[in-house]
Amino acid sequence: MSLQTDIEALWERKEDGLTAADAGETELETLAAFIAALEAGEVRAAEKRDGEWEANAWVKRGILLNFALRETEPREYGGVTYNDVLPLADTSAYGERGSRNTPDGTVVRQGAHVGSNCILMSPAFVNIGAYVGDGTLVDSCDTVGSCAQIGENVKLGANTLIGGVLEPVESAPVVVEDNVSLGAGCRVTSGFVVGENSVVGENTLLTPRIPVYDLVEEDVIYGELPADRRAFTRFVESSVSDHDLFEGGAYKPAVVATGLEEETLEATEREDALRE
Question: Which has more confidence, 79 or 261?
Answer without folding.
Answer: 79
